[in-house]
Design brief:
single chain, alpha+beta
Length: 65
C-alpha cells in the first residue's frame, strides 16, 4: 500500500507504487511545503518510508537506480 499527496489535498491511498507516482506526476511544488510526495505504508525492516519528496526520488532511492 502506498500514499501520495499533492499540494492542498489530503493524502490518497494506492495499491501500487506506479499508481501513486502517476497521481503526483507533473504536480507543482510549493516553497514552504515538501509536497508532492509518495510513501510506502507497509515497509519491511530497513526500508525507507518516503520514496519521493517534492516530486524527486529520495537520496536513498536514487542510489538504487
Amino acid at each position: 500500500m502506498f500514499e501520495a499527496a499533492i499540494v492542498g489535498l489530503y493524502p490518497e491511498q494506492f495499491a501500487t507504487e506506479d499508481a501513486a507516482m502517476k497521481y503526483i506526476e507533473g504536480q507543482p511544488t510549493c516553497p514552504n511545503e515538501v509536497r508532492p510526495w509518495v510513501r510506502k505504508v507497509n515497509r519491511s525492516a530497513g526500508e525507507k518510508e518516503f520514496l519521493v519528496i517534492a516530486g524527486r526520488p529520495t537520496p536513498d532511492r536514487e542510489s538504487r537506480r
